[in-house]
Amino acid sequence: xxxxxxxxxxxxxxxxxxxxxxxxxxxxxxxxxxxxxxxxxxxxxxxxxxxxxxxxxxxxxxxxxxxxxxxxxxxxxxxxxxxxxxxx
Length: 88
Known about the structure:
Layout: E1 6-9, H1 11-18, E2 32-40, E3 43-56, H2 61-64, H3 69-87
Parallel strand pairs: 1-3
Antiparallel strand pairs: 2-3
């Protein structure tokens, strides 16, 4: 599989893909070029190829933290702009 873009829904998905243990709030909605982790022989290794990963809050997060609602809308707008720019 060779996706053009990977959308990570939530901090756990983002950390699992990239190995970045930072706060998702610092990168939410950004298009990040990075290798991703793959499982090999029971351990994770980074891929040689870089992928575009866009971390977003998990949709259920707004139920636990309503304050992020506007951040979710902004990050979706950024994703939409990125996808539109990528089509051109």
